[in-house]
Structures are given as structure tokens and as C-alpha cells.
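INFO  loader      accepted 1 record
INFO  loader      residues=357
INFO  predictor   begin
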Amino acid sequence: MWVHEKMFVLAFSQKKLSEIVAEIKAISLLPEWLLPVQNFLTEWQNPRKRVFVQQTSGSTGKPKKIKLSRKHLQQSALDTIAYFHLQKNDKALLCIPANFIGGKMMLVRAILQKMDLYVVPPNIQALENIPSQLQLQFAAMIPPQVQFALHNAREKLTNIEKIIVGGAAVTHDLWEQLQSLPNTFFATYGMTETCSHIALQQLNGANRQTHFHCMSQISVYINENDCLCIHAPLRISHDIATNDTAILLNEKTFEICGRRDNIINSGGLKIQPEIIEKTLSKYLEAPFVVIGEKDELWGEVPILLIESEEFSVQKQQELENFLVKKLDKKLRPKKVIFVKKLQRTANGKIIRQQYLP
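INFO  predictor   done
INFO  writer      dumping C-alpha cells
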């Protein structure tokens, strides 16, 4: 059902899936942003279809197609429904692309729990398309959408009771801005292979957390490469060894340090660029990324790319002073390069591999 030309409601609380699919197919000129929704719902309504082919986002390498079972997708949806106490007739928002796992899981959750799903174009200004008075119980967003809404649709953002934020890391600046909001935000950790998130971290509110906590019947451990491994027997047919280096507090609680393939080997010192970025995020407002550059003496050294016009001499000196104060000499970027635009995935994550030597 159309609310207006940029908002469509999938009323799973009132209608069967087959009725909703028929309703979408009856639209003469279906907007491009609704096509992935139609395609997935058409597939899902076939009970004989047990396996779904899904393409990864490509944020950590070349996009690839993998197979996901209906049983595992359903279990992931049930895990999230239980964690957030989602109810029949709840209103949820789909504002991320339905051709990726995050968007598809919003559809599966709504179907299984008979929620009404409000669908809008999955762009950065997505919340501008929802009515100001609409109260929503749940949504999944990417960090750029949250950042945009904070400045352009703040009231609408606070009308969403619980929001999971994924697809890219939450910056320190965004984290700080969330602290004053009355609704609750959660960072997610997961991947396409695990049918969306396997762990959550509450970012604000009285119960905010400093680490990721695994969902029910999921645990993690570290392998010989210091990388996180996921044990989720109800979601995956075998344990998954990720490429993320991590620190474990216990088998259910962890902190991500960065990706193993991002490590900069500088004179035998293995530098995780994400740790440098975490410190820099407290100072830099412009988007940036730390990568390794080949060096004849050290093999590799960290350098800093900033999406900005070149800083003034004074601002560059202030940055240098901050680096000297906050980072060990071996961790300080040896060069600062200003670029017009950093390449990103559809989720807004900077494609680090684009700039590696």
C-alpha cells in the first residue's frame, strides 16, 4: 500500500505474503528501489525454495555469491526478534538496500513476526520520506544515514525506538552525538555468511556497552592468527574463521581490533590501522583512512588519507601536534595526503583495498 510516492507499506500484520506479492506485481511502473523487495518476496513465498543466493557487499574484497539456507535466514530473524522483543503489529522501517543481506533480513523479520514494514528509497536522506508523526519500533540503518538524519531529520530519527547500525564502523564523532538521544542505538557485528549480525553493542542509554555481545546460542573464540572465529550451529553449518583480529573477554564478549589483511608490517612491527583510526576519529571531522605505503627501509609505513581540501599550515601543525601527543612514534602516519573523494561501498564503508600498494 502506498503512503506516498516514496513510501510503500508491506502490511504483514493484516495480509498474507502472497497477497502482498500480488499487490506489488500489480503496480504498473514499479520504482527501481522496490524491485529488490519484489524479487526477494517472490522467491521467499515459494516454500520449496530452500537455498537463496546472496552477493556479498565487497567492502573487504571482491564481491562474491554465496548460498544461504532458508532455515538459517529464519533463525537469524528469530534471534533478532527475540533480542529486541519485537511484536506482531510493530512498525519497522526498511531504508537499506534489499539486494543485500541487511535489507533482506528486515523483510524476513517482518514476515515471521507479522510486522508492518515501511519501505522507502535506500539513500542517505531516507528518513526525509517518512511522516513526522510516524512512530516506529525498529529499523536498520548505515552510519551515513544516521549522521544525515541527526542534522536534517532529528525528530524522525528519535521516533524510531530501536535502531541497529551496520555496514560500516560507528565513528567516535557519531557515537558522541548519539549520547543525547532518547532512543536506543546498537552497533552490529556480522557478515553475509552468518545471515546478518551475530553480536550487538548498545551504543547509548543507561545500559550502553563497550564491547560486542554475542546473541543467544552463539559464541566466539580466537584462532592461531589472532582472528575471531564464530560458532553458531543454528545459523551456519560449520564454524567461520573471520579475518578480523579481536580481543576476547570471554566466549560471548569481544572487541574488534581490525582486519588481518589490513595489517601494516613496519620493520617487523605489525600495525593495525584501525587502532590508529580510532584515535584519529577523536580529532578529525573529515572522512579519512590509514593505509600502508611501501618503504625501502621499513618495508611499509602508515600514511593518512583525508577526504578534504588541503589543510592550512596552522591546521596541519595542529594535526601533527595531536599525533605526537596521542600516538607512539612508530604508529604515527609518516605522510598525510588530501584526496577529493574516498571510494565507498553502497553501505558507506571506505574501500580500503582501493588504496593499498
